[in-house]
Design brief:
Layout lengths: L3 E4 L3 E8 L11 E8 L1 H11 L4 E8 L2 H12 L3 E7 L5 E7 L5 E6 L19 E5 H5 L4 H14 L2 E5 L3 H7 L1 H7 L5 E2 L3 H8 L4 H8 L5 E5 L5 E5 L2 E5 L13 H13 L5 H15 L13
Parallel strand pairs: 1-4, 1-8, 2-6, 4-5, 8-9, 9-10, 10-11
Antiparallel strand pairs: 2-3, 6-7, 11-12, 12-13
């Protein structure tokens, strides 16, 4: 079985679901939960839940939050290759969830911003590298992300990259991203990211254009499912089922994990996307970005 190395962020999510439209300057009742987060950590936990051997490389603070995250990830079956930063705190993200499950994030990367090439395991303990885009898009952690990509290429690993978020992707620039991600096997953008990276507003055209640059592309379309594009192949894979979305936080990470778990076992692209859609549907039904822990 393929072993996956995920390089990406670890964070604590503070998820707030207001009971009514937020009223500036006063109180708005809300459901608030604290849970594990960070795009890299989320993908790693979903992969472990799907039975994929996975190692997570990242950086946490020397604080109780970092200790708790290391323990939570280990309990979930993730092998942790986490450096501890002596000065910066563990990353934290405030997530505001609107009706329908759409989320707005206020991230403080904390120790994630200081990820260093020396933090990478040597040799890479995997047959596949999954790089979450945040380390690549931040200038301070970019050398570590680029080192991971270069070491993976040299070692003959297959590689997937999630562009992370359209805001920092816009700031970094599409041309730069394409240069950094050259030669990867699988790109996993959402629709906004695909439009930005391709320059094409139409989802089908965006996927087709990106498939000329990368071996394969999966474009997440939210409630409409996802697109698979590779070579001359282009297929819309419908969502797994109609679900009442409680919280979309981490749904893209769940989709990426589901796709990888199937694709790395040799399933066809559309079948792998269907598997990813099923995992994403599960993520939408509860607060937080990771699988619901089993009850004790």
């Amino acid at each position: 079985m393929s072993r996956v190395l995920v390089v990406g962020d670890v964070a604590v999510d503070v998820v707030a679901v207001p009971a009514a439209p937020v009223r500036p300057g006063t109180d708005t009742a809300a459901t608030v939960r604290t849970s594990g987060g960070g795009a890299g950590a989320n993908v790693a936990v979903w992969l472990a839940k799907l039975g994929v051997p996975v190692t997570l490389c990242g950086r946490i603070g020397a604080d109780p939050a970092g200790q708790a995250q290391r323990a939570e990830l280990t309990a979930a079956g993730v092998v942790c290759a986490l450096a501890t930063d002596p000065a910066l705190p563990t990353g934290c993200i405030v997530v505001l969830v609107s009706p329908g499950g759409e989320r707005t994030m206020l991230p403080d990367p904390g120790a994630n911003a200081a990820l260093h090439p020396d933090d990478l395991p040597d040799p890479l303990p995997a047959t596949h590298l999954h790089l979450s885009g945040y380390p690549l898009l931040r200038e301070s952690s970019r050398p570590a992300a680029l080192a991971a990509l270069e070491r993976a290429r040299t070692a003959g690993l297959t590689v997937s990259v999630d562009p992370a978020s359209v805001g920092p992707l816009t700031a970094a620039g599409p041309d730069n991203f394409h240069a950094w991600a050259r030669g990867i096997d699988l790109l996993l953008p959402n629709l906004d990211e695909a439009r930005l990276l391709s320059g094409e507003p139409d989802p089908l055209s965006a996927a087709r254009t990106l498939a000329r640059r990368y071996e394969a592309v999966v474009v997440s379309l939210g409630p409409a499912g996802a697109l698979w594009a590779s070579g001359r192949e282009l297929e819309l894979v419908p969502p797994a089922a109609a679900v009442a979305a409680l919280d979309s936080t981490g749904a893209g990470d769940a989709l990426a994990a589901g796709v990888l778990a199937a694709w790395l076992t040799g399933q066809t692209g559309p079948a792998a996307v269907a598997a990813g859609n099923r995992t994403a549907a599960t993520a939408l039904t509860h607060l937080g970005a990771r699988p619901t822990p089993p009850r004790r």
